[in-house]
Protein backbone atom coordinates (compact mmCIF):
# COMPACT_ATOMS: atom_id res chain seq x y z
CA UNK A 1 0.00 0.00 0.00
CA UNK A 2 1.16 3.54 -0.72
CA UNK A 3 1.74 6.23 1.86
CA UNK A 4 -0.25 9.41 2.12
CA UNK A 5 1.71 12.65 1.88
CA UNK A 6 0.57 13.76 5.31
CA UNK A 7 1.89 10.63 6.97
CA UNK A 8 5.02 10.00 4.97
CA UNK A 9 7.56 11.51 7.37
CA UNK A 10 6.21 9.58 10.33
CA UNK A 11 5.95 6.34 8.40
CA UNK A 12 9.50 6.58 7.07
CA UNK A 13 10.81 7.33 10.53
CA UNK A 14 9.05 4.34 11.98
CA UNK A 15 10.01 1.86 9.31
CA UNK A 16 13.48 2.88 8.34
CA UNK A 17 14.76 4.39 11.55
CA UNK A 18 15.61 7.68 9.81
CA UNK A 19 15.95 10.60 12.20
CA UNK A 20 15.84 14.26 11.33
CA UNK A 21 17.85 16.29 13.78
CA UNK A 22 16.32 15.78 17.18
CA UNK A 23 13.01 14.33 15.95
CA UNK A 24 11.58 11.41 17.88
CA UNK A 25 9.06 8.93 16.50
CA UNK A 26 5.67 9.56 18.07
CA UNK A 27 2.50 7.50 18.05
CA UNK A 28 -0.11 10.19 18.62
CA UNK A 29 -3.57 8.82 17.79
CA UNK A 30 -2.12 5.52 16.60
CA UNK A 31 -4.80 2.94 17.29
CA UNK A 32 -4.26 -0.63 18.42
CA UNK A 33 -6.58 -3.36 17.16
CA UNK A 34 -6.99 -7.01 18.00
CA UNK A 35 -7.79 -9.10 14.93
CA UNK A 36 -8.47 -12.84 14.77
CA UNK A 37 -8.75 -14.38 11.28
CA UNK A 38 -11.39 -17.06 10.89
CA UNK A 39 -10.43 -18.31 7.41
CA UNK A 40 -7.34 -18.89 5.32
CA UNK A 41 -8.21 -15.92 3.08
CA UNK A 42 -8.44 -13.64 6.10
CA UNK A 43 -5.11 -14.93 7.40
CA UNK A 44 -3.54 -14.29 3.99
CA UNK A 45 -4.77 -10.69 3.97
CA UNK A 46 -3.24 -10.01 7.37
CA UNK A 47 0.08 -11.53 6.33
CA UNK A 48 0.00 -9.50 3.10
CA UNK A 49 -0.63 -6.32 5.10
CA UNK A 50 2.25 -7.17 7.40
CA UNK A 51 4.62 -7.50 4.45
CA UNK A 52 3.38 -4.60 2.34
CA UNK A 53 2.40 -1.74 4.63
CA UNK A 54 4.98 0.48 6.32
CA UNK A 55 2.30 2.11 8.46
CA UNK A 56 1.17 -0.96 10.38
CA UNK A 57 3.14 -2.38 13.31
CA UNK A 58 2.32 -5.96 14.23
CA UNK A 59 2.92 -6.22 17.97
CA UNK A 60 1.72 -9.80 17.98
CA UNK A 61 1.37 -11.98 14.92
CA UNK A 62 -0.34 -15.32 14.62
CA UNK A 63 0.43 -17.90 11.98
CA UNK A 64 -2.79 -19.89 11.99
CA UNK A 65 -6.48 -19.31 11.51
CA UNK A 66 -7.88 -18.39 14.92
CA UNK A 67 -4.60 -16.90 16.14
CA UNK A 68 -4.48 -13.38 17.51
CA UNK A 69 -2.95 -10.33 15.82
CA UNK A 70 -2.38 -7.06 17.71
CA UNK A 71 -1.80 -4.30 15.17
CA UNK A 72 -0.83 -0.64 15.61
CA UNK A 73 -2.39 1.49 12.86
CA UNK A 74 -1.14 4.94 11.85
CA UNK A 75 -3.88 7.62 11.67
CA UNK A 76 -3.44 8.21 7.95
CA UNK A 77 -3.76 4.48 7.26
CA UNK A 78 -6.91 3.94 9.35
CA UNK A 79 -9.42 4.22 6.51
CA UNK A 80 -7.47 1.85 4.23
CA UNK A 81 -6.94 -0.63 7.06
CA UNK A 82 -10.56 -0.78 8.20
CA UNK A 83 -11.84 -0.97 4.62
CA UNK A 84 -9.49 -3.85 3.84
CA UNK A 85 -10.74 -5.74 6.88
CA UNK A 86 -14.38 -4.97 6.03
CA UNK A 87 -14.01 -6.21 2.47
CA UNK A 88 -12.64 -9.53 3.74
CA UNK A 89 -15.26 -9.81 6.51
CA UNK A 90 -12.71 -9.55 9.32
CA UNK A 91 -13.90 -8.19 12.65
CA UNK A 92 -11.50 -6.06 14.66
CA UNK A 93 -11.65 -5.05 18.32
CA UNK A 94 -10.31 -1.59 19.20
CA UNK A 95 -7.95 -1.87 22.17
CA UNK A 96 -6.41 1.61 22.34
CA UNK A 97 -7.02 4.94 20.60
CA UNK A 98 -3.71 6.67 21.42
CA UNK A 99 -0.55 4.57 21.70
CA UNK A 100 1.52 7.64 22.58
CA UNK A 101 -0.29 8.15 25.88
CA UNK A 102 1.23 5.03 27.44
CA UNK A 103 4.67 5.89 26.08
CA UNK A 104 4.50 9.42 27.52
CA UNK A 105 3.44 8.14 30.93
CA UNK A 106 6.30 5.65 30.93
CA UNK A 107 8.79 8.38 30.02
CA UNK A 108 7.56 10.70 32.78
CA UNK A 109 8.08 7.99 35.39
CA UNK A 110 11.60 7.33 34.12
CA UNK A 111 12.58 11.02 34.22
CA UNK A 112 11.35 11.33 37.80
CA UNK A 113 13.20 8.20 38.89
CA UNK A 114 16.45 9.23 37.16
CA UNK A 115 16.32 12.61 38.93
CA UNK A 116 16.33 10.79 42.26
CA UNK A 117 19.44 8.85 41.22
CA UNK A 118 18.44 5.45 42.61
CA UNK A 119 18.79 2.13 40.80
CA UNK A 120 16.06 -0.20 41.93
CA UNK A 121 13.49 -2.45 40.31
CA UNK A 122 10.52 -0.13 40.30
CA UNK A 123 11.34 1.43 36.95
CA UNK A 124 13.11 0.88 33.65
CA UNK A 125 16.62 2.19 33.07
CA UNK A 126 18.71 3.33 30.15
CA UNK A 127 21.73 1.39 28.98
CA UNK A 128 24.30 3.61 30.68
CA UNK A 129 22.51 3.17 34.01
CA UNK A 130 22.47 -0.63 33.63
CA UNK A 131 26.17 -0.69 32.72
CA UNK A 132 27.07 1.57 35.64
CA UNK A 133 25.15 -0.76 37.95
CA UNK A 134 27.07 -3.78 36.62
CA UNK A 135 30.32 -1.91 37.27
CA UNK A 136 29.16 -1.22 40.81
CA UNK A 137 28.36 -4.89 41.44
CA UNK A 138 31.82 -5.92 40.25
CA UNK A 139 33.39 -3.50 42.72
CA UNK A 140 31.08 -4.54 45.53
CA UNK A 141 31.15 -8.35 45.28
CA UNK A 142 34.17 -10.63 45.00
CA UNK A 143 31.95 -13.17 43.24
CA UNK A 144 31.21 -10.80 40.34
CA UNK A 145 33.48 -10.45 37.31
CA UNK A 146 32.80 -7.98 34.50
CA UNK A 147 32.54 -9.50 31.02
CA UNK A 148 32.34 -8.12 27.52
CA UNK A 149 30.34 -10.48 25.36
CA UNK A 150 30.92 -8.49 22.19
CA UNK A 151 30.10 -5.10 20.78
CA UNK A 152 27.53 -3.35 18.63
CA UNK A 153 27.60 -1.65 15.24
CA UNK A 154 27.80 1.73 17.02
CA UNK A 155 30.62 0.30 19.15
CA UNK A 156 28.72 -0.10 22.40
CA UNK A 157 29.76 -2.88 24.72
CA UNK A 158 27.64 -5.97 25.16
CA UNK A 159 28.39 -5.86 28.86
CA UNK A 160 27.65 -8.61 31.31
CA UNK A 161 28.94 -10.27 34.45
CA UNK A 162 29.91 -13.69 35.65
CA UNK A 163 28.74 -14.66 39.13
CA UNK A 164 30.68 -17.57 40.62
CA UNK A 165 30.90 -18.67 44.24
CA UNK A 166 33.21 -21.63 43.65
CA UNK A 167 35.02 -23.51 40.91
CA UNK A 168 33.62 -26.60 39.23
CA UNK A 169 30.06 -25.34 38.86
CA UNK A 170 27.99 -25.98 35.74
CA UNK A 171 27.24 -22.76 33.87
CA UNK A 172 24.02 -20.95 32.99
CA UNK A 173 24.06 -18.30 30.26
CA UNK A 174 21.29 -15.70 30.47
CA UNK A 175 20.61 -13.24 27.67
CA UNK A 176 18.19 -10.31 27.71
CA UNK A 177 17.10 -7.49 25.47
CA UNK A 178 17.89 -9.05 22.10
CA UNK A 179 14.72 -7.34 20.86
CA UNK A 180 15.17 -3.71 21.79
CA UNK A 181 11.60 -2.71 22.68
CA UNK A 182 11.08 -5.57 25.15
CA UNK A 183 12.15 -3.57 28.20
CA UNK A 184 10.87 -6.08 30.75
CA UNK A 185 13.58 -8.47 29.52
CA UNK A 186 16.68 -6.50 30.67
CA UNK A 187 14.80 -5.54 33.83
CA UNK A 188 14.10 -9.20 34.64
CA UNK A 189 17.70 -10.24 34.00
CA UNK A 190 18.86 -7.45 36.34
CA UNK A 191 16.34 -8.50 38.99
CA UNK A 192 17.48 -12.13 38.91
CA UNK A 193 21.13 -11.06 39.04
CA UNK A 194 20.47 -8.94 42.11
CA UNK A 195 18.67 -11.81 43.83
CA UNK A 196 21.51 -14.23 43.12
CA UNK A 197 23.75 -11.88 45.10
CA UNK A 198 21.41 -10.73 47.88
CA UNK A 199 18.59 -13.23 48.45
CA UNK A 200 18.52 -15.25 51.67
CA UNK A 201 15.96 -17.72 50.33
CA UNK A 202 17.57 -21.20 50.63
CA UNK A 203 16.44 -22.31 47.16
CA UNK A 204 17.81 -19.16 45.55
CA UNK A 205 21.06 -19.48 47.50
CA UNK A 206 21.34 -23.05 46.28
CA UNK A 207 21.21 -22.16 42.59
CA UNK A 208 23.26 -18.98 43.12
CA UNK A 209 26.17 -20.81 44.72
CA UNK A 210 26.07 -24.09 42.81
CA UNK A 211 26.00 -22.70 39.28
CA UNK A 212 28.17 -20.19 37.47
CA UNK A 213 26.05 -17.42 35.98
CA UNK A 214 26.83 -15.51 32.80
CA UNK A 215 24.37 -12.62 32.80
CA UNK A 216 23.88 -10.15 29.93
CA UNK A 217 20.92 -7.78 30.40
CA UNK A 218 21.06 -6.08 26.97
CA UNK A 219 22.63 -7.87 24.01
CA UNK A 220 21.23 -5.40 21.45
CA UNK A 221 22.60 -2.19 22.99
CA UNK A 222 22.20 0.08 19.95
CA UNK A 223 18.57 -0.92 19.56
CA UNK A 224 17.90 -0.48 23.27
CA UNK A 225 19.39 3.03 23.26
CA UNK A 226 17.31 3.84 20.18
CA UNK A 227 14.11 2.83 21.96
CA UNK A 228 14.93 5.34 24.69
CA UNK A 229 16.09 8.17 22.44
CA UNK A 230 14.13 7.90 19.19
CA UNK A 231 11.52 5.17 18.76
CA UNK A 232 10.02 3.27 21.69
CA UNK A 233 8.80 0.42 19.47
CA UNK A 234 12.09 -0.28 17.65
CA UNK A 235 12.92 -4.00 17.60
CA UNK A 236 16.06 -4.60 15.51
CA UNK A 237 19.72 -3.66 15.45
CA UNK A 238 20.84 -0.34 13.95
CA UNK A 239 23.07 -1.54 11.12
CA UNK A 240 22.52 0.68 8.06
CA UNK A 241 21.53 -1.04 4.83
CA UNK A 242 20.86 0.25 1.35
CA UNK A 243 17.76 2.24 0.56
CA UNK A 244 17.67 4.07 3.88
CA UNK A 245 16.87 0.89 5.80
CA UNK A 246 18.26 0.12 9.24
CA UNK A 247 18.72 -3.03 11.23
CA UNK A 248 18.12 -6.75 11.18
CA UNK A 249 16.28 -8.92 13.67
CA UNK A 250 19.10 -10.21 15.90
CA UNK A 251 17.03 -13.23 16.88
CA UNK A 252 16.76 -14.36 13.25
CA UNK A 253 20.45 -13.84 12.46
CA UNK A 254 22.21 -16.78 14.17
CA UNK A 255 23.92 -19.36 12.00
CA UNK A 256 21.71 -22.36 12.64
CA UNK A 257 19.24 -23.11 9.84
CA UNK A 258 19.36 -19.40 9.10
CA UNK A 259 16.50 -17.92 7.02
CA UNK A 260 14.66 -21.22 6.61
CA UNK A 261 11.47 -20.34 8.48
CA UNK A 262 9.66 -17.36 9.96
CA UNK A 263 12.03 -14.69 8.72
CA UNK A 264 11.85 -12.03 6.03
CA UNK A 265 14.26 -11.10 3.25
CA UNK A 266 12.89 -7.52 3.22
CA UNK A 267 15.08 -5.15 5.18
CA UNK A 268 12.04 -3.07 6.11
CA UNK A 269 10.49 -6.04 7.88
CA UNK A 270 10.79 -6.39 11.64
CA UNK A 271 11.77 -10.03 11.13
CA UNK A 272 14.46 -9.30 8.53
CA UNK A 273 17.09 -11.98 9.09
CA UNK A 274 19.94 -9.93 7.64
CA UNK A 275 21.73 -10.46 4.31
CA UNK A 276 23.51 -13.52 5.70
CA UNK A 277 23.93 -15.39 8.98
CA UNK A 278 25.84 -13.38 11.59
CA UNK A 279 25.71 -10.28 9.41
CA UNK A 280 25.07 -8.28 12.60
CA UNK A 281 28.19 -7.55 14.61
CA UNK A 282 26.15 -8.02 17.79
CA UNK A 283 25.25 -11.63 17.03
CA UNK A 284 28.65 -12.36 15.49
CA UNK A 285 30.70 -11.16 18.46
CA UNK A 286 28.30 -12.50 21.08
CA UNK A 287 28.29 -15.93 19.42
CA UNK A 288 32.08 -15.97 19.46
CA UNK A 289 32.05 -15.21 23.17
CA UNK A 290 29.45 -17.88 23.91
CA UNK A 291 31.37 -20.38 21.79
CA UNK A 292 34.45 -19.68 23.92
CA UNK A 293 32.44 -21.01 26.88
CA UNK A 294 31.69 -24.35 25.22
CA UNK A 295 31.81 -27.03 27.89
CA UNK A 296 31.40 -24.43 30.63
CA UNK A 297 27.72 -23.67 30.07
CA UNK A 298 25.06 -26.34 30.34
CA UNK A 299 21.98 -24.13 30.09
CA UNK A 300 21.09 -21.19 27.83
CA UNK A 301 18.14 -18.97 28.75
CA UNK A 302 16.83 -16.08 26.64
CA UNK A 303 14.29 -13.58 27.94
CA UNK A 304 11.78 -11.95 25.60
CA UNK A 305 8.32 -10.43 25.83
CA UNK A 306 5.49 -10.87 25.51
CA UNK A 307 2.81 -13.63 25.60
CA UNK A 308 3.65 -15.72 28.71
CA UNK A 309 5.26 -18.67 26.97
CA UNK A 310 8.14 -21.00 27.76
CA UNK A 311 9.67 -22.23 24.52
CA UNK A 312 12.39 -24.66 23.57
CA UNK A 313 14.01 -25.82 20.27
CA UNK A 314 13.40 -26.21 17.44
CA UNK A 315 12.06 -23.17 15.62
CA UNK A 316 13.00 -24.13 12.06
CA UNK A 317 11.14 -27.44 11.90
CA UNK A 318 8.23 -29.30 13.44
CA UNK A 319 10.57 -32.24 14.05
CA UNK A 320 11.39 -32.70 17.72
CA UNK A 321 14.78 -32.54 19.38
CA UNK A 322 16.29 -35.81 20.66
CA UNK A 323 15.51 -34.76 24.25
CA UNK A 324 12.12 -33.27 23.46
CA UNK A 325 10.33 -35.25 26.16
CA UNK A 326 12.73 -34.02 28.83
CA UNK A 327 12.45 -30.41 27.67
CA UNK A 328 8.68 -30.70 27.62
CA UNK A 329 8.48 -32.22 31.12
CA UNK A 330 10.90 -29.66 32.54
CA UNK A 331 8.87 -26.85 30.95
CA UNK A 332 5.63 -28.19 32.44
CA UNK A 333 7.12 -28.23 35.92
CA UNK A 334 8.65 -24.79 35.37
CA UNK A 335 5.43 -23.05 34.34
CA UNK A 336 3.58 -24.78 37.19
CA UNK A 337 6.12 -23.32 39.59
CA UNK A 338 5.86 -19.88 37.99
CA UNK A 339 2.10 -19.78 38.49
CA UNK A 340 2.19 -20.44 42.22
CA UNK A 341 3.08 -16.94 43.43
CA UNK A 342 0.68 -14.75 41.42
CA UNK A 343 -1.35 -17.18 39.34
CA UNK A 344 0.39 -16.15 36.10
CA UNK A 345 -0.39 -18.77 33.48
CA UNK A 346 2.20 -19.74 30.88
CA UNK A 347 1.89 -22.07 27.94
CA UNK A 348 4.89 -24.10 26.83
CA UNK A 349 6.22 -26.13 23.94
CA UNK A 350 8.73 -26.27 21.12
CA UNK A 351 9.06 -22.96 19.26
CA UNK A 352 7.72 -24.17 15.91
CA UNK A 353 4.46 -25.49 17.34
CA UNK A 354 3.89 -23.32 20.39
CA UNK A 355 4.31 -19.87 18.82
CA UNK A 356 5.35 -19.92 15.15
CA UNK A 357 8.12 -21.14 12.83
CA UNK A 358 11.23 -19.02 13.41
CA UNK A 359 14.76 -19.95 12.42
CA UNK A 360 18.05 -18.28 13.26
CA UNK A 361 17.32 -17.80 16.98
CA UNK A 362 20.02 -17.73 19.64
CA UNK A 363 18.50 -20.55 21.69
CA UNK A 364 18.34 -22.87 18.69
CA UNK A 365 21.95 -22.01 17.85
CA UNK A 366 23.12 -22.77 21.41
CA UNK A 367 21.28 -26.07 21.32
CA UNK A 368 22.21 -27.13 17.79
CA UNK A 369 25.74 -25.77 17.49
CA UNK A 370 27.15 -25.82 21.03
CA UNK A 371 25.20 -28.87 22.21
CA UNK A 372 23.66 -26.98 25.15
CA UNK A 373 20.75 -29.31 25.76
CA UNK A 374 18.90 -27.15 28.29
CA UNK A 375 17.84 -24.21 26.13
CA UNK A 376 14.72 -22.12 26.76
CA UNK A 377 13.15 -18.85 25.74
CA UNK A 378 10.81 -17.06 28.12
CA UNK A 379 8.17 -14.79 26.63
CA UNK A 380 7.44 -12.75 29.75
CA UNK A 381 4.39 -10.78 30.88
CA UNK A 382 1.84 -9.79 29.81
CA UNK A 383 -0.33 -12.45 28.25
CA UNK A 384 -1.32 -12.47 24.60
CA UNK A 385 -4.56 -10.64 25.34
CA UNK A 386 -2.76 -7.39 26.18
CA UNK A 387 -2.09 -4.71 23.59
CA UNK A 388 0.63 -2.85 25.53
CA UNK A 389 3.00 -5.74 26.04
CA UNK A 390 6.09 -3.73 25.17
CA UNK A 391 5.05 -0.84 27.42
CA UNK A 392 4.49 -2.97 30.50
CA UNK A 393 3.90 -0.78 33.59
CA UNK A 394 7.02 -0.74 35.81
CA UNK A 395 4.99 -1.85 38.83
CA UNK A 396 5.06 -5.28 37.18
CA UNK A 397 8.87 -5.54 37.10
CA UNK A 398 9.25 -6.99 40.60
CA UNK A 399 6.33 -9.47 40.33
CA UNK A 400 7.65 -10.59 36.95
CA UNK A 401 11.12 -11.05 38.41
CA UNK A 402 9.84 -12.91 41.46
CA UNK A 403 7.76 -15.47 39.58
CA UNK A 404 10.42 -15.91 36.90
CA UNK A 405 13.08 -16.61 39.51
CA UNK A 406 10.72 -19.11 41.18
CA UNK A 407 10.41 -20.88 37.86
CA UNK A 408 14.13 -20.75 37.14
CA UNK A 409 14.80 -22.58 40.41
CA UNK A 410 12.45 -25.33 39.25
CA UNK A 411 13.92 -25.42 35.75
CA UNK A 412 17.39 -26.07 37.13
CA UNK A 413 16.17 -28.56 39.74
CA UNK A 414 14.23 -30.55 37.16
CA UNK A 415 17.07 -30.60 34.63
CA UNK A 416 19.53 -31.58 37.36
CA UNK A 417 17.30 -34.51 38.31
CA UNK A 418 17.60 -35.71 34.74
CA UNK A 419 21.40 -35.63 34.84
CA UNK A 420 22.06 -32.68 32.55
CA UNK A 421 24.86 -31.23 34.68
CA UNK A 422 26.77 -34.43 35.50
CA UNK A 423 29.16 -34.21 32.55
CA UNK A 424 30.48 -30.74 33.24
CA UNK A 425 33.96 -31.56 31.95
CA UNK A 426 35.40 -28.07 31.56
CA UNK A 427 33.69 -26.36 34.47
TrEMBL record:
Its main location: secreted. Coiled coil: none annotated. SUPFAM superfamilies: Protease propeptides/inhibitors (SSF54897), Zn-dependent exopeptidases (SSF53187). GO terms for biological process: proteolysis. Its cofactor is Zn(2+). GO terms for cellular component: extracellular space. SMART domains: Zn_pept. Residues 123-415 form the Peptidase M14 domain. The active site is at residue 379. GO terms for molecular function: metallocarboxypeptidase activity; zinc ion binding. Keywords: Carboxypeptidase, Disulfide bond, Hydrolase, Metal-binding, Metalloprotease, Protease, Secreted, Signal, Zinc. Gene3D superfamilies: Metallocarboxypeptidase-like (3.30.70.340), Zn peptidases (3.40.630.10). CDD domains: M14_CP_A-B_like. It is found in: Secreted. Residues 1-21 form the signal peptide. It holds the Pfam family Peptidase_M14. InterPro entries: CARBOXYPEPT_ZN_1 (IPR057246), CARBOXYPEPT_ZN_2 (IPR057247), M14A-like_propep (IPR036990), M14A_act_pep (IPR003146), Peptidase_M14 (IPR000834). Belongs to the peptidase M14 family. Involved in the digestion of the blood meal. This is Zinc carboxypeptidase A 1. It comes from Aedes albopictus (Asian tiger mosquito).
Amino acid sequence: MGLSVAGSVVAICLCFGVTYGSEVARYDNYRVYEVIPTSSSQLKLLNDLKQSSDSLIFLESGTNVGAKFNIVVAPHKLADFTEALHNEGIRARLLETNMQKSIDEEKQRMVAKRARGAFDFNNYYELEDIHAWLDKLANQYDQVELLEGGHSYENRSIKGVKVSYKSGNPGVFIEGGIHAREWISPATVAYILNELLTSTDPKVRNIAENYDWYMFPSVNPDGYVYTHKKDRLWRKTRTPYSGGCFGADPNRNWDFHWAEQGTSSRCQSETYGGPYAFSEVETKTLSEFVASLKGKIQAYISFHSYSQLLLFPYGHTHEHTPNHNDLDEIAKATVTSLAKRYGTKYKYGNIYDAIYPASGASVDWAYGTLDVKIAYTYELRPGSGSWNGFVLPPKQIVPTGEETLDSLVTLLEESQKRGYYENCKDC
